[in-house]
Amino acid sequence: MGGQRMRSPLKRARGLGSARGGFEHWWMQRVTAVALIPLSLWLAASLIALTGRDYNTFVAWLKAPSVTVLMVLLLIALCRHMALGLRVVVEDYVHSNWAKIPAVVTIYWACFALAVVGIVATLRIAFDG
Amino acid sequence: MAHDKRPLSPDLQIYRPQLTSVLSISHRVTGIALSVGTLLLVSWLLAAAAGPQAYSTVQGVMHSWLGRVLLFGCTFSFFFHLCNGIRHLVWDAGYGFELRTIYVSGWTVVAASTALTVAAWFSSFVAME
To answer: End-to-end distance of chain B based on CA atoms, in angstroms?
Structure first.
């Protein structure tokens, strides 16, 4: 045998690497990034078109089924991407576990809550009247 | 103390800033700025769900001097993070690592995000007319 294989076939198949959860983090960051390219460009174009428009125009826009669906998808991808990114920033610069762990947990739930609030607001507008 | 005498490798304060390092840290900074942008997006949706009055209050804040500065910062952060994010995805795919290519793509990101920011604000002023 040429060289010792330290990884078992199962470990290679799972593709998790040495940090167990590391690959999942890296991969989800890319998955959400790719989804956010069209979604964020759509939002930017829509916001430009909505500049200075009144409440009724905005509500009518958000009530269109395609817009409601895209907004919910955007909020999911955006908040997930944001949670992953902010976590890395904290892990890189905060070294004491006493500060790092609460910060990571806070980021996780704050981003989750932000997504829920945004989605509920979107659906309330969509299904109101 | 003994370990104070150890030779240290050069760090951020010693290296002259280069395009590569400046763009790298800017990706983080714009990512953090976009978290603030996400807060704005969700509060905007929340205000719309609350009704016309809350919506016009938020619109008023966005059209104020401070609101415009915030939105301009978000616009540039968005286009920079988008363009540089695509540059990162190309690297993830295994392309563009030659030193010359890294500088060409870096300056392309700077030029594209600046041009897109100006174009977005110009279109938004046109849309408001």
So the answer is: 68
